[in-house]
Amino acid sequence: MASETILVVDDSAGTREVLRRNLTDRGYQVLTAPGVAEAVEILEAADINLVLTDMRMPEASGLDLVRHIRENIKDLEVVIITGFPDFNDAVRAIKTGADEYLIKPFTDNELFEVVEKALGKRRLQERMAEDDGVAAPYGILGQSPEMRRLYRQVAKAAATSATVLIQGESGTGKELVARSIHYQSRRASAPFVPVNCGSVPEQLLESELFGYVRGAFTGAATTRAGFFQTADTGTILLDEISEASPAMQVKLLRVLQDKEVCMLGSSRPVRVDVRILAVSNRDLQALASKGAFREDLFFRLNVITIPIPPLRERGDDILLLIRHFAGKAARELNIDTPRVSDAALKVLMGYHWPGNVRELENVVQRLVYMAEGDIVDVPDLPQLMRFSALRAPNLNRTLAEVEADHIRRVLAHVAGNKSEAARILGISRKTIREKLKGLDPEAGP
Ligand SMILES: Nc1ncnc2c1ncn2[C@@H]1O[C@H](COP(=O)(O)OP(=O)(O)OP(=O)(O)O)[C@@H](O)[C@H]1O
Ligand SMILES: [Mg+2]
User: Fold this and answer.
1) 176 C-alpha vs ligand 2 centroid, how far in Å?
2) For a Cys staple, 292 with which of 83, 165, 264, 287, CB 3.0–4.6 Å?
3) Closest ligand to 357 CA?
4) DSSP per-residue letters across 191-226
């Protein structure tokens, strides 16, 4: 971290010198001024993070300096120093806008404590200001050029009612983007209905999507509207669209073409006005050209395509997200946000994040939960990130753990592409999921 600069203002050369030496020893940059006029000059020329000023000085007082700073410079912390008999001066200074006061005589520790408190407040404010500037609507964070491009695409898509295909690796924020499109669109006040086409058995998916009339099948005791009807005038999100069965694909194609749905057990189609967002973490075009996905459905879905960049291509966004998730976890625990050492940040920045933002959130959350001091360092990071290959083999592990570790490494090697990993490992995608389940909270579903 770049060291912070403190301006010491005191008419006594001896006091200036003592303060300068103490603060410099602590790693701060220190500038000094013998009076308010000189201090004002320095403030105009240099980038100062904190002003430490004596109250009583022959020409202008510390209070004048506080006033000048509050009127001319917004975010600058000021600590005022007074003698014990002038305690009321300190109170007045705080009322005028000083942030902290120190009563003479004070110990070195009292000095450092007050200085750190004031600087800590400033750092926090800076952080808030940064976060403010980058938050895209609906909780999407990031300010990298890649993310800015994404925000523009989201805004454009939101202005239309066209079908959108959102593609990206697992955990990149596809659902977040879909929600953002819906809530920025004219349909925002109508329902947003997400449906997972991969995790629901085909029969159930069909009745959930299209609804059914009484007696359509055993157990259909009443007539029930499907998601498409529920989402009328709103938006439906077809998640994991690549996993929809061929029969389901035909049915979806029909909805897209005719804008009507047929409830199970009924022959009377119902008109629906639903905007469709489809999500996939597999390359749908490639699947379509291989014949693994209906080409006509792909073309219908692919009116607008929004690719979401993987986390490792978002540069410094990783830092911003670490800060965000660390702050969030710390707030939940009601503790101060631990600092992440530069060395640890370097490791985190260099990791390939196959599970993208979801993996990052899980890792950071766990680091905060497990943090023992107020700093997170390299040894606290998950083993996987710390060049596990260089370490002595750990003989105290079950086969299942070793297996999961190997699967994770292969997944990392292929940048999280489960199909590719499945090919290398000689098992199915489903088996990968099952083998990682319960063993690895980072791997995502
Ligand atoms: N840019 C971002 N800023 C803040 N949080 C994010 C961002 N991207 C993703 N997240 C968070 O990461 C998690 C995963 O996001 P989401 O569920 O949208 O990803 P996904 O691409 O749909 O994942 P999957 O492929 O597993 O379905 C969520 O908790 C989400 O809030
Ligand atoms: Mg998702």
Assistant:
1) 8
2) 287
3) 1
4) -EEEEETTTS-HHHHHHHHHEE-TTSSTT--S-EE-
Residues with CB under 5 A from ligand 2 (ion): 175
Helix residue spans in 302-436 (DSSP H)? 317-333, 342-350, 356-370, 399-413, 418-425, 429-436
Question: For the segment 373-398, what is each residue's pLDDT rounded down to a tens digit?
Answer: 888 888 888 877 876 333 434 555 67
Q: What architecture is the 392-445 domain classified under in CATH?
A: Orthogonal Bundle (1.10)
How far is residue 339's CA from residue 122's CA, in Å, rounded to a whole number? 16
Structure confidence at residue 193 as a pLDDT band (50, 70, 90):
very high
User: Whats the size of the chain, residue-wise?
Assistant: 445
CATH 3.40.50.300 positions along the chain are 138-309
Ligand 1 mutation pick, 143, 166, 170, 175, max ligand atoms within 8 A of CB: 175
Task: Give residue-wise pLDDT tens across range 305-342.
Answer: 999 999 999 998 999 999 999 999 999 989 989 989 88
Is the separation of the CB atoms in 246 and 205 below 8 Å? no
Pocket test for ligand 1, best of 319, 358, 364 (most atoms within 8 A of CB): 358
Nearest CA owner, ligand 1 atom 25: 170
Q: Which listed CATH number (3.40.190.10, 3.40.50.300, 3.30.530.20, 3.40.50.2300) goes with 5-134?
A: 3.40.50.2300
Question: For the chain, where do the domains classified as CATH 1.10.10.60 start and end?
Answer: 392-445
Ligand nearest to the CA of 144: 1
Q: What is the pTM of this model?
A: 0.62
Lining ligand 1 with CB less than 6 A are 139-142, 168, 170-176, 281, 357-358, 361, 444-445
Say which residue the tokens 């670490």 belong to: 322
For 138-309, give the CATH class: alpha beta
Architecture of domain 312-391: Orthogonal Bundle (1.10)
